[in-house]
Task: structure prediction
Amino acid sequence: MFTHINAFTGFGIRLRAEHYCNFLETEVPVDLLEDISEYFMEEGAGLHQTLRQIRERHPVALRGVSMFIGSSSSLDDLTHRFWSMS
Result:
């Protein structure tokens, strides 16, 4: 049976690095933050902790853009890094 899901009617913007401090230190009137998941997969940049702190204050939607279609590389490493962010 189909259940109706209300459409999102809030206000969302892209989470950009130059605005991390704003989202961590002030109240920003936004309903949703959105960014690309691969940006947060870099090692040693402190981005995982920053993302966790921002997620404590705002809903965040991450979307992946690197599907490695046609690549001979394994998805295991990328998948492991993605799931370790949660």
